[in-house]
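Why Glutaredoxin domain-containing protein? Reviewers of the renewal asked for a concrete example.
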Amino acid sequence: MISSTDDVRRTVQAKPVVVVGRRECCMAHVAPCLLLGQGANPAVLEVSDDADPAALVFALWPKDNSTKVATEVAFPVVFIGGRLLGGLDSLMAMHMAGKLVPVLKQAGALWL
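Here is what the prediction returned.
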């Protein structure tokens, strides 16, 4: 269980792919499975049940997120290459459009 936004920030800066979600959430299980299926090995951080995804994202990157983006983020939150991708819906849309693998390669999460 992560204890602060600093823990998330450090992990996002150190790892090419990070998934932040709630422990018992099935969607927090789907995101890493999709990424693993593409050959990436995401770092998975668990937050408490009362954690607010919009507050987490805004606390980490207040200048990079409009109010609209920050309020639409839901757990799990996915970061690729140190940047916020969004939630599971954004991850799935990128995968279905064939854009996920190139982004993972660019982030250094895939070697091929």
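Helices lie at 5-14, 26-37, 53-60, 67-72, 88-96, 100-107. This is the kind of structural detail the renewal will allow us to pursue systematically.
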